[in-house]
């Protein structure tokens, strides 16, 4: 896709959202199923059913997806798509590349072994390796715009209010 095609694709949406800000508000959702054997949650995605389970560092067999890995994978997917869309929009010459996310977990927190150990990632690093001949100034602009418009990056950087509720099925 080139910049002109992307602009043509997004222009009617941008106009619609400028005219009616409520039209831009979309609630995304994810759903999982708790039935079945073992310590697992079956998560329905738009493409497949993923069974998530315990990470081997918490006693899992490593045969199921780890939710921590899935979080990093969501960041990689969002950042990669965002970078490519931004590169297209600004006519950035990108021949290819790679994106990687790493996160540091102290499983003592998750297992309740040490109250001072955090539950969750203590740090996350997102890295791109780009195949381009663009100037550093253009690379910096691409980086700033990717960071600014990546939904998952921004959600992790400035977490929204999170609410947990529980109710019974009856």
Rounded to an integer in angstroms, the radius of gyration calculated over CA atoms is 20 Å
Q: So, CATH architecture?
A: 2-Layer Sandwich
Overall tally of domains: 1
What is the H level of CATH, i.e. the homologous superfamily? K homology (KH) domain
Number of strand elements? 5
In whole angstroms, the N-to-C terminal distance is: 50 Å
CATH topology: GMP Synthetase, Chain A, domain 3
- How many strands, which pairing sense, and closed or not: the largest β-sheet? 3 strands, antiparallel
Structure description:
Strand 1 (31-33) and strand 2 form a beta hairpin. It is built from five helices and five strands. It is of the alpha+beta class. Helix 2 (67-89) packs across helix 4 (136-149).
């Amino acid at each position: 896709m080139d910049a002109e095609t992307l602009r043509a694709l997004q222009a009617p949406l941008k106009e619609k959202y400028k005219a009616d800000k409520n039209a831009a508000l979309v609630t995304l959702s994810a759903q999982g199923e708790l039935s079945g054997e073992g310590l697992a949650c079956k998560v329905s995605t738009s493409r497949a059913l993923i069974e998530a389970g315990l990470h081997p560092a918490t006693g899992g067999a490593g045969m199921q997806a780890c939710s921590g890995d899935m979080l990093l994978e969501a960041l990689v997917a969002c950042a990669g798509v965002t970078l490519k869309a931004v590169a297209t929009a600004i006519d950035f010459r990108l021949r290819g590349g790679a994106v990687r996310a790493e996160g540091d977990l102290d499983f003592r927190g998750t297992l309740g072994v040490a109250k001072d150990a955090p539950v969750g990632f203590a740090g996350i690093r997102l890295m791109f390796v780009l195949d381009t001949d663009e100037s550093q100034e253009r690379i910096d602009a691409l980086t700033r715009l990717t960071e600014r418009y990546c939904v998952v990056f921004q959600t992790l950087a400035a977490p929204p209010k999170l609410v947990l509720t529980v109710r019974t099925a009856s």
